[in-house]
Amino acid sequence: MYTIKQAAALVGMSEHTLRFYTDKGLVPAVTRDAHNNRVFSDEALNFLTVIKCLKGCGMSIEAIKKYVDLCLQGEDTVQERYKIILAQKKVAQAQLQEAQKRIEYLQHKADNYAAILAHHTPDTMNPASWPGRSVG
Predict the structure, then answer these.
(1) Domain residues for 32?
(2) Is residue 125 part of a domain?
(3) What pTM value is reported for the model?
């Protein structure tokens, strides 16, 4: 069993976010101790890990709640949950491809700046170096 501080550290979320998710009913395996503090089980951490992933894919809180509710309904909902996970996998793959494009672009820019610093190429991002343009 984990305190909210421990759970937040283990799943890489803020305590505020954990409170928000538990208040929204997204983490069914959370209980309360004698002082009414949230107590997180390993099952709760598993739910939080899934929630973090789904949220990272851009899934809404409402859609995540629907997924959690389906999980709680049991084996009769496995097919629907499977479809949800496959759809989110597609979203994550698209995000990865976009991130890869950004990395490639940034590498191109970094290479360009390295060449500028080595005096091999002019600084084309500086308007003063544009042909026919004088600044100042």
Answers:
(1) 4-117
(2) no
(3) 0.72
